[in-house]
């Protein structure tokens, strides 16, 4: 059973959502602009709160790369404010008529985008997510309950206080954005069991967080972001292009879900490509976990079965030779997390077969997996990348943060 | 942990789904036509199997209306066959390009409809659902695992045997349609916990079935069909029209989810409309559970708090006077199941406010709630009516039985 405190917070979110659902785009954009301005006005207070979190994390011996993700400074705060302004500039998804027709009997049928209502977001260290998520939810007409990492609690509390004050000053309920109260896993659990109070839950973070939410939640969940992404170099590949794509997909940014984690090479080009790409990967500082063919190259470590399913998020890659396209499809079917998989090929037939057969959120041809991204896709804002098949798949922008309803207008119609 | 038998069945469904996902529309339509023909060819065997179910149900003292839902005969079997042919005539949703653009960098982006993969359907007595669901799943490219009522096991076994034989004869894997093996709740539980093996689960049946699936399932669920539908007669209503709509929504067919279960009347027209509609409802044999104003009319029984949330599915209705439109919105917000709610009004402002504020799958103006239906909406086939906000809301046709993926084509694009 949810605690009284949680139920009360969720109830205020519902009331705020009811008001927000009817707000005009102008009112929402004004609130977003006010939020951006208030974040900057409150810079001193927010950075002071953040300094407490950083100090606590350092004292607890947190790794410096995690501390860096937690840390805010003037430029990062300015980027958060700019993110809110960017969302203000995007079209309002609410009210969009998705389809409409007049039926033979004269009934007018319209399917219209509407907000979900109350969205819960569970996320890890980065406090910038607090403002990003609040902005996207507000623009799509949803009240949001945020559950950040406890390591960022001071920062998140200060940021949410700013955002609430700004929303209220702009004439919307401050409760459109709230932190989930309480400590530790119990508080997360309340959010996950709040069916009826919360309409959808979006976990953002590592595989462990996401799978525990999926397992425990009775609230409908949108899974995001685990990416065991493959690059398949086909027999008909331009090997120069393949080299560029593999290196970009692996090394452009390693800590992100659309980075490549596994390389598959068609046997027909293995003799030429395996030594060549291995050398380039080694030059780039990438540790290669290879099958027998790759492991014959100096410096390659033999892959274990677990490597094929591993999302390294680091300068490491698994690599195997497959007999042909069918072998690649079979390997991907078995090991892909369904995020992004790419083929490098000059064969139209191979490209066609790969895009049809690979069952992933994004299937790419002659392009780096790094392009699977709301920004790259032109969505303007992104709440995450869905790797599930229900509701939204791939990068989620504002329209993916809405539901629809049918509005049916008659003049006394009966059956 | 799933049993070996279940895992094996689900594995065959996955293999069949992989083939089916790449099947052409012509191949799928040929299989649907073959299924229709084979059902008719197998009439004797299917009706004999059904007779066993009916006999067993009668021996167990099952209510005659339930036995009637279980019973098949020549015309009902012919209707099942015709349903399959109708689905063959509908457009194939798979491959539809939902959106597409060429990005500034030249990448070609397309969002394309693809099947879910393996769909599980849990349903109650009617054996005709077996063929309907199999047809809709096949056309949308999904393999289906069917879990019908154990009371219909002989019928469902015979029907599925026919459908499998027809699919195989038409060149598709017979495993595109299978029954979930095993007895009782344990078998249902396996289906509900088969995350990774089953992509989406659709329970069709009463509120108890649906809420237990929602509570226990780790597979993503699409909730269907519980309808506590309201008719609100506004101060500005044409009362003749209101009378026709209330009677139609309540009495046209009582056992369906889009039947009206609750009547709200604006205080301004209560003095005239309450006695008038009560008389007509009584003439139609409807038991009225009324608030104080309604209960002052002879024959009306006083409503309890539970009545406002009750889906009677019978000749019964709850009825209350509300102060005005805001009162109606408040009542609906508290008690509606989010299926279909209608306003009868001649006021454009009231209609606009009602359609904006009521958060249900279908919001109707001057039309009976009975119109919320895939057939009425022109979808050609319907797997159910979703009352949830994620993925699909309202009547679900073939497109709602698909996911999407992004296909991104470059010519060596890197970031």
Automatic annotation (TrEMBL), chains A, B:
GO terms for molecular function: glutamate-5-semialdehyde dehydrogenase activity; NADP binding. Pfam families: Aldedh (PF00171). Coiled coil: none annotated. One of its GO terms (cellular component) is cytoplasm. Its EC number is 1.2.1.41. GO terms for biological process: L-proline biosynthetic process. It is an enzyme of class 1 (oxidoreductase). It is found in: Cytoplasm. It catalyses: L-glutamate 5-semialdehyde + phosphate + NADP(+) = L-glutamyl 5-phosphate + NADPH + H(+). Residues 11-284 form the Aldehyde dehydrogenase domain. Keywords: Amino-acid biosynthesis, Cytoplasm, NADP, Oxidoreductase, Proline biosynthesis. Pathway: Amino-acid biosynthesis; L-proline biosynthesis; L-glutamate 5-semialdehyde from L-glutamate: step 2/2. The keyword Amino-acid biosynthesis applies. The keyword Cytoplasm applies. Catalyzes the NADPH-dependent reduction of L-glutamate 5-phosphate into L-glutamate 5-semialdehyde and phosphate. The product spontaneously undergoes cyclization to form 1-pyrroline-5-carboxylate. Belongs to the gamma-glutamyl phosphate reductase family. This is Gamma-glutamyl phosphate reductase.
């Amino acid at each position: 059973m949810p605690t009284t405190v949680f139920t009360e917070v969720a109830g205020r979110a519902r009331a705020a959502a009811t008001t927000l659902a009817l707000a005009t785009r102008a009112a929402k954009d004004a609130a977003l602009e006010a939020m951006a301005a208030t974040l900057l006005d409150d810079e001193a207070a927010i950075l002071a709160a953040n300094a407490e979190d950083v100090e606590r994390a350092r004292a607890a011996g947190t790794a410096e790369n995690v501390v860096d993700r937690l840390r805010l400074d003037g430029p990062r705060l300015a980027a958060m404010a700019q993110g809110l302004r960017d969302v203000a500039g995007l079209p309002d998804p609410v009210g969009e008529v998705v389809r409409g027709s007049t039926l033979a009997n004269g009934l007018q049928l319209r399917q219209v985008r509407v907000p979900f209502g109350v969205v819960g977001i569970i996320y890890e260290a980065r406090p910038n997510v607090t403002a990003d998520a609040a902005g996207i939810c507000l623009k799509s007409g949803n009240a949001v309950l945020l559950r950040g990492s406890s390591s960022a609690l001071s920062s998140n509390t200060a940021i949410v206080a700013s955002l609430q004050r700004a929303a209220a000053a702009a004439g919307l309920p401050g409760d459109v954005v709230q932190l989930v109260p309480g400590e530790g896993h119990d508080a997360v659990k309340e959010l996950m069991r709040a069916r009826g109070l919360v309409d959808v839950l979006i976990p953002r973070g590592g595989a462990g967080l996401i799978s525990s939410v999926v397992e425990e939640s009775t609230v409908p969940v949108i899974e995001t972001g685990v990416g065991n992404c493959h690059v398949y170099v086909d027999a008909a590949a331009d090997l120069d292009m393949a080299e560029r794509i593999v290196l970009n997909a692996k090394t452009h940014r390693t800590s992100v879900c659309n980075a490549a984690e596994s390389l598959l090479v068609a046997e027909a080009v293995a003799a030429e490509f395996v030594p060549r790409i291995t050398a380039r990967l080694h030059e780039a500082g990438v540790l290669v976990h290879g099958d027998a063919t790759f492991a014959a190259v100096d410096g390659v470590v033999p892959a274990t079965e677990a490597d094929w399913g591993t999302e390294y998020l680091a300068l490491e890659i698994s690599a195997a030779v497959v007999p042909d396209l069918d072998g690649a499809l079979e390997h991907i079917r078995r090991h892909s997390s369904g995020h992004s998989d790419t083929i490098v090929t000059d064969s139209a037939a191979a490209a066609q077969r790969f895009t049809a057969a690979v069952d992933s959120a994004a299937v790419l041809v002659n392009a780096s997996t790094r392009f699977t991204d709301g920004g790259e896709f032109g969505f303007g804002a992104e709440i995450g990348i869905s790797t599930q098949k229900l509701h939204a798949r791939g990068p989620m922008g504002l329209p993916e943060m809405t539901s629809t309803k049918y509005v049916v207008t008659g003049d006394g119609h009966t059956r």
